[in-house]
Amino acid sequence: MNVTEISRPLAWPFEEAQKLAVRAEELAKPGVLFETGYGPSGLPHIGTFGEVARTSWVRHAYTVLTGKPSRLLAFSDDMDGLRKVPDNIPNRDALRPFLGRPLTRIPDPFGTHESFGHHNNARLRGFLDSFGFDYEFASATEYYAGGRFDAALRRVLEAFDEIVAVILPTLGPERRETYSPILPIHPETGVVEQVRIDKIDVDAATVFWTDVQGKRFETSVLGGGAKCQWKADWAMRWFALGVDYEMSGKDLIDSVKLSGRICEVLGAKPPIGYTYELFLDDRGQKISKSRGNGLSVEEWLRYAPPESLSQFMFNQPHRAKKLFFDVIPRAVDEYIANVARTRSEDEAALRANPAWHAHLGRIPPGAGSPISFGMLLNLASVINAETPEILWGFIRRYLPEASPEAAPFLARLVEHAVLYYQDFVRPEKRFRAPDAVERAALSDLAETLRGMAPGADAEAIQTMVYEVGKRHPFSALKAWFACLYQVLLGQTEGPRFGGFVALYGISETVALIERRLAGFGDA
Fold it and tell me: Where are the domains of the chain?
């Protein structure tokens, strides 16, 4: 397909895919290479998921647009020297003597793999595999030691002075004195040395340097004897592997620019990039792993299915988003709503639907739920659900054909709803007494509900709730619904009240209203 024939994209992955299609045509490439990078000094986290998921969506969009092959390389920078001992590992003191060595030449503090780098690489692969990502794993250690980068490293030596000229203006005076794009591995200590290079032998592919003890060395840059400083390393990798696309966070904007210039110095066109915004906590502060003010993948998956995390990651990645527990229910219900939409959308609309992208164009038959997560949380709140079975008793009355076997996604939501209610909703429940107007309206609502047929559907009940609110002097109907949530449920907001009544039961809702009014006494 000629790129000019591609119709206007409808979602950001297609916008990115179209740029990539243009690049592939310009470079006459039969296939393209996507890359994601990972620093294995720590464990994979929610940002790792976001980067691989988003890259996978662009890759899928590229396939849909062009039909051409592609690969996704998950690259581990495991030859980096360990700068500090992480706080969240066992036997921390045992690692201190190995500071500065490549991560794959440091003992595994967990005692399960041949090195700390190998342990974290295994965790990364297990993490990615658990989400079903289609990728190829790459280890910097294996690529350097196996000679995969040898030709590119020779090119780095040839362009050594040009690369230094790109980087020096960005450094302070002291760092300029010792900067080198090549970092030799000390043959005696095994440390990745950040030292000034005294001399280069391009033909022999060696560098001459002096360590802090004054000893002079000549080190080959080939076969794992040296590695590149990180911005040069990024550029060298793009050049050596022919990377076409790589995402990165907003905090790396300047690094992307510098690495792009180095890539051009080496003789290649830098990959297309996409800058995504970073996450914020509930106070609007940047999330930091060291401060622990973020939300982990494990925590998210305790309270919601992975599809909801994909939904969260898909939404406007170029904008900063708050990432804390309160965003989970909304993400779940957005996903459910989007799955429902896919059943009636044409192809053009599907390509703009986050659920379609999250499932790479193949929506599973059992995806979605007839009951929203917000509704389940409110039901759990009213009945003080301690087990999923309690919720299922109400669900079966509302949907007689429903069962964990027939509705597996709903079954997962029920499990999550109980945990989320117990950990977050129950501790925050705050009931308030109704004022005179609200008391009269609630009494009217109870009486009107008594006159409705037991099997009335959610829409009919919702319409009735509106009519009751209109009969009383509220400043706006929003105030009426705030009364329902705050007085009856002890929450500041909730789902469509008609749906809640249909699920909970009309007679049960009448009894709930009466209990709340009696509990608060006269207004």
Answer: 3-162+229-276, 297-428, 436-520
Is there a contact between 236 and 265 (Cβ–Cβ < 8 Å)?
no
For 38, list phi and psi in degrees, rounded to 5.
-145, 130
Radius of gyration of the chain (CA): 29
Quick one: DSSP state of residue 37?
E
Angle at alpha carbon of residue 378, lines to 429 and 384, rounded to 5°: 65
The architecture in CATH of the region 3-162+229-276 reads 3-Layer(aba) Sandwich (3.40)
* pLDDT tens-digit series, residues 505-514: 999 999 999 9
Element of type H or E holding 182: strand 182-184
What secondary structure does DSSP assign to 443-483, as a single string? HHHHHHHHTS-TT--HHHHHHHHHHHHHTS--SSHHHHHHH
Q: For residues 279, 281, 286 and 292, what is the CA-based torsion angle, rounded to 10 degrees?
A: -110
Q: Which helix (H) or strand (E) holds 199?
A: strand 197-201
Residue 434's nearest CA partner among 401, 394, 405, 474 is 474
To the nearest whole number, what is the mean pLDDT of the chain? Answer: 92
pTM for the model stands at 0.90
Dist. CA 499–CA 477, nearest whole Å:
17
* DSSP letters spanning 244-308: -EEEEEGGGHHHHHHHHHHHHHHTSPPPEEEEEPPEE-TTSPBP-TTTT-S--HHHHHHHS-HHH
Give the separation between CA 267 and CA 240, rounded to whole angstroms: 10
Tokens encoding 219? 């080190």
CA nearest neighbour of 230 among 205, 199, 194: 194
Buried b (16+ CB within 10 A) or exposed e, 12-35: bbbebbbbbbebbeeeeeeebbbb
CA angle, 291 then 295 then 296, to 5°: 100
Residue 521: predicted pLDDT: 52
Q: Are 257 and 240 in contact (CB under 8 A)?
A: no
The pair of structure tokens assigned to 243 is 């990377």
Examine the pLDDT at 4 and tell me if it is beyond 80.
no
Q: Could you report how far apart the first and last alpha carbons of the chain are, in Å?
A: 71
Maximal C-alpha separation, the chain:
94
> Tokens representing 496?
């469509």
The residue among 498, 400, 404 whose CA lies nearest residue 449 is 498
Contact 462, 494 (CB under 8 A): no
Phi and psi (nearest 5°) for 137? -90, 140
**Residue 1 predicted with pLDDT over 90:** no
436-520: CATH class: mainly alpha
The tokens for 502 are: 């249909």
Q: Which residues lie below 8 Å from residue 509, measured CB to CB, with a gap of 6+?
A: 449, 500, 501
d(CA 121, CA 112): 12
